[in-house]
Amino acid sequence: MNGNTEFYYRLGQVREEDAPEAVDRFRLENAEKDHPDRGGDVAIYAAILNETGSHYRAVGKYDESANAFSTLLAVLKRHFGENSVDYATALGNLAGTHRLMREQEKALDLLRQAREILANHDAPQLMASMYNYEAGAHLDMGRVEPALECLRQARELLLPVPGAEMEMATTLANISAVLD
After folding, report:
1. Which region, left, alpha or beta, applies to residue 142 given φ > 0 means left and ψ of -120 to 50 means alpha?
2. Distance (Å) of CA 100 to CA 2, 58, 65, 127, 153
3. What is the pLDDT of residues 21-48, one digit of tens each?
4. Distance (Å, rounded) from C-alpha 130 to C-alpha 12?
5. The pTM is what?
6. Is residue 21 classed exposed, middle or buried when 0-12, 13-18 and 19+ CB atoms within 10 A define those classes?
7. Helix (H) and strand (E) counts for the chain?
């Protein structure tokens, strides 16, 4: 089991305890241990920051979520550059937080940045996800036509991709919801 897999396995075990404070403590302890400036594993540290940002977003602590994702972006930029798939994914995650903060223009900007990066990688499913997220931000602002265009782009990207049934189902469900 590699370090990242082991981290998620242990995190799953802690979550099974159904004690939110234990999960927080686990993330904090591992963040200290795996901080790259202390010789820790960058991939595990990035996973911890991503989990932290996602957790805070899920419980409505949007400022804390944005801070965790911003720190993640800084770590990824420093260690892998701004043109990595991981960096684009983190931009999308930060965009999701800004969307919930009702900062749709900021979310759209982050999603556009993510798509620009992904255009240089073979990641059609991830690119389609960004288009789906972008469609949601447009809909939040009452912009139906740009939302539909994003969803059409997502669908076109996914058509030739074997194994993308779940992503296609999400995209088609989103199109259906917009057209209802």
Report:
1. left
2. 34, 10, 11, 21, 23
3. 778 788 777 777 777 777 778 888 899 8
4. 27
5. 0.88
6. exposed
7. 9, 0
